[in-house]
Amino acid sequence: MSGLLRPDEGEPVIVINGDGKSPVVLVCEHAGKVMPKALGSLGLPPEDLVRHIAWDIGAEAVSRQLAQALDAPLILQRYSRLAYDCNRPPESPGAMPEVSETTRIPGNEGLSEDQRFQRIRCLYRPFHDAVSEFLDRRAARGAVSLLVTMHSFTPIYKGKRRHLDLGVLHDRDSRLADIVLSLCGRLKDIVAKRNEPYGPEDGVCHTLNLHGGMRNLHNVMLEIRNDLISHETGQSQWASRLQDILEQAIALVFRPAAVRVNSST
Fold first, then answer.
1. CA quadruple 165, 178, 199, 120: dihedral positive or negative?
2. Structural domains in the chain, sorted by start
3. Of 43, 39, 37, 16, whose CA–CA distance to 27 is shortest?
4. I want to staple 209 with a disulfide (CB 3.0 to 4.6 A). Which of 43, 50, 52, 213 is the partner?
């Protein structure tokens, strides 16, 4: 980790409940707002480092509760997405954004090749290597994985209000997203929409494609409006709601296999 992270700063990734029995594997790429000390504040005032531009507000708290409720493993990324957005590949301009929404990020302007490489090497690569190794270990022991990435979004973006509570995102593989959307459609108290407030054309499906696509895993990205989970009550409510949805989704994903087994006996 030399060159960016000091030994006392810790790894970019935390694995929680790694032995969880659920087929769901939760991943939260924007869980933390910690800034590597070598980067200072990236030229930003303290108030900007706690805004949605720096992390996904409430996403870690919901993910932790959901992991416990489902008995699912959870992989968290600790550092601010302003240092490196781990849901973007190294060649993406959004990986180390010079502007986030309308906020200029001075510490990301004019980065040298070596500075960019250090962030890739110390933040991006260890995180995604950990996700890959975790999924491969599960596969080696015959465990099926459903990849669910957890995010939150700001209700107002560039002055425009977003009229939804939950975004259900996918790229080419819509299998799990279709099931989740169908289940959400039965609920009267939330508005869920497909590929909003972002979609694959915005480059937000990198983790899904990198880890789910190449392994042919059912995968989906869940985006919760962050004002709904910025407090403990909302975090508990959404963890419970998503527990119900994902437990039903698991049953539907595996039901065809069970029917085939029963019909052959």
1. positive
2. 7-263 (3.40.630.40)
3. 16
4. 213
